[in-house]
């Protein structure tokens, strides 16, 4: 596969409360970008991102899942993050490496506990964020109520970029507030939509919403602000770059409605990700450590290669997969990498662009890429990969401490062997899970963030 241009890369984490619709959205994104030919369902256990046996059994996301897609000339890395507090380590490690986050909020249930936790992580990491109000086709879904909750509980800088057309079962389209165009769907899950004028009953609402949006956008550009205050009409070509600037500076958080399972509004969401969210080259430098000193790693395509391993997955067929985010420079699979955290060479057989459990090999990686590397010998989660001669490493990922413990006793010799191997595998995949052995009780005590 051809090397990607960092200017065209977008990295986004889907975050939010458990059951808010993140995996359904990831599935709709995969379908609309041609990654799949039909949309799977969480209830049927056939989605791209929830491919683990326990995930399919419980119908929840347990592990973060990476989906690499292309849309509108952009290479987009989407990480579908678990929403339950038990798996908060997966959420935090994923948000550490992306350039933006899309907070998925159910239009039925509104802002929930883990919604606020994901928002707090985004605040701590100072990354651009947007909101997707999901399940708009469901009974009791309410866009305006959910928008007020976002503005009251999370940020008053949240402003609609799109508005819904219709409510609950009658939700069949969205309106682009900036361009004042409506996009109508059949609601049968197909990709097709029709561009039309704004429905007459929404005209006043769209006009007032556009005024509020433009007022927030021009705050990022003094010249546009002066021209706007003088009554001049600003063009889309002028407003979109200012919108991007506002999102990057976190002075504006776009809000978009949609219905993922019926595939309404997802194409417009993809367009917004491509058009509005930042590329890795627009992001500020990342902090790194050089001895006891703090240094900055610039997102420079010509700089020295620097990447952080943020996830380990043990695949029953491929073996160990180390997921990395490239923050500087480029690398080829023909050359070895160097684990700066452990002082060891690592041989690279291939870089894999992940699509759930499937993958496509690529020879080279550049700034912004999020890929998996099979069978690295010494690398664990939190390690910095680079080249020999470098002396700066990325700070380790900070994980929450375990708060829940149980005692596990084997029933047979076979169970004892399985239990003995579990500690060697689990901490590599999840750093919030700890194992302790209690010889007196003939038991092992796994500790984590919850019963799941």
Relevant terms:
single chain, 452 residues, alpha+beta, Rossmann fold, Elongation Factor Tu (Ef-tu), domain 3, 3 domains, seven-stranded mixed sheet, six-stranded antiparallel sheet, 10 helices, 26 strands, 26% helix, globular
Chain-wise SSE layout:
Layout: E1 9-15, H1 22-32, H2 53-58, E2 65-71, E3 74-80, H3 88-97, E4 100-106, H4 113-125, E5 129-134, H5 143-154, E6 158-160, E7 162-165, E8 173-176, E9 181-185, E10 193-196, H6 203-218, H7 222-229, H8 236-248, E11 253-257, H9 266-276, E12 286-290, E13 293-297, E14 306-315, E15 319-328, E16 331-332, E17 337-339, E18 344-346, E19 351-355, E20 358-362, E21 364-365, E22 370-374, E23 384-386, E24 404-405, H10 413-429, E25 434-438, E26 443-448
Parallel strand pairs: 1-3, 1-4, 4-5, 5-11, 6-11
Antiparallel strand pairs: 2-3, 7-8, 8-9, 9-10, 12-13, 14-15, 14-23, 15-22, 16-21, 17-18, 17-23, 19-20, 24-26, 25-26
Helix pairs in contact: 3-4, 6-8
Concise account of the structure shown:
The protein has about 450 residues and is α+β, with helices and mostly antiparallel strands. It has helices at about 20-30, 55-60, 90-95, 115-125, 145-155, 205-220, 220-230, 235-250, 265-275, 415-430; strands at about 10-15, 65-70, 75-80, 100-105, 130-135, 160, 160-165, 175, 180-185, 195, 255, 285-290, 295, 305-315, 320-330, 330, 335-340, 345, 350-355, 360, 365, 370-375, 385, 405, 435-440, 445-450.
Number of strands: 26
CATH class categorisation of the largest domain: Alpha Beta
Query: Structurally, how many domains make up the residues?
Result: 3
Give the rounded overall mean pLDDT: 91
Helix-strand makeup class: alpha+beta
- The CATH architecture of the largest domain comes to 3-Layer(aba) Sandwich
As for the CATH topology of the largest domain, it is: Rossmann fold
């Amino acid at each position: 596969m051809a090397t990607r241009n960092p200017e065209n890369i977008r990295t986004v984490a889907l975050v939010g409360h458990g059951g808010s619709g993140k995996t359904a959205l990831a599935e709709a994104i995969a379908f609309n970008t041609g990654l799949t030919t039909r949309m799977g369902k969480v209830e049927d256990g056939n989605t791209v991102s929830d491919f683990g046996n326990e995930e399919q059994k419980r119908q929840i996301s347990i592990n973060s899942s990476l989906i690499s897609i292309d849309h509108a000339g952009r290479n987009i890395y989407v990480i579908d993050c678990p929403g339950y507090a038990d798996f908060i380590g997966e959420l935090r490690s994923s948000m550490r490496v992306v350039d933006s986050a899309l907070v998925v909020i159910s239009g039925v249930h509104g802002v929930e506990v883990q919604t606020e936790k994901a928002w707090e992580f985004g605040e701590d990491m100072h990354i651009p964020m947007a909101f997707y109000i999901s399940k708009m086709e469901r009974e009791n879904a309410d866009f305006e109520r959910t928008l007020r909750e976002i503005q009251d509980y999370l940020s008053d800088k949240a402003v609609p970029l799109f508005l819904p057309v219709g409510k609950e079962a009658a939700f069949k389209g969205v309106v682009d507030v900036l361009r004042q165009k409506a996009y109508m769907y059949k609601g049968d899950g197909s990709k097709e939509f029709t561009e039309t004028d704004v429905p007459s009953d929404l005209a006043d609402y769209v006009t007032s919403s556009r005024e509020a949006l433009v007022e927030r956008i021009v705050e990022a550009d003094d010249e546009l602000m002066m021209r706007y205050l003088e009554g001049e009409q600003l063009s889309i070509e002028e407003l979109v770059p200012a919108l991007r600037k506002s999102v990057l500076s976190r002075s504006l958080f776009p809000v978009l409605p949609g219905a993922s399972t019926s595939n309404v509004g997802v194409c417009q969401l993809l367009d917004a990700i491509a058009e509005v969210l930042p590329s890795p080259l627009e992001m500020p430098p990342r902090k790194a450590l050089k001895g006891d000193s703090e240094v900055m790693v610039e997102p420079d395509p010509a700089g020295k290669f620097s990447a952080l391993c943020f996830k380990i997955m043990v695949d029953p067929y491929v073996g160990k997969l180390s997921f990395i985010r490239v923050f500087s420079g480029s690398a080829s699979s023909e050359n070895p990498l160097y684990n700066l955290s452990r002082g060891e060479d690592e041989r690279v057989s291939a870089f894999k662009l992940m699509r759930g459990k499937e993958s496509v090999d690529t020879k080279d990686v550049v700034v912004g890429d999020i890929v998996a590397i099979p069978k690295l010998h010494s690398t664990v989660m939190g390690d910095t990969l680079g080249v020999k001669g470098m002396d700066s490493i990325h700070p380790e990922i900070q994980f929450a401490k375990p708060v829940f413990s149980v005692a596990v006793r084997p029933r047979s010799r076979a169970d004892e062997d399985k239990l003995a191997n579990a500690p060697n595998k689990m901490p590599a995949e999840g750093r919030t899970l700890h194992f302790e052995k209690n010889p007196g009780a003939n038991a092992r005590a796994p500790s984590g963030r919850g019963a799941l």
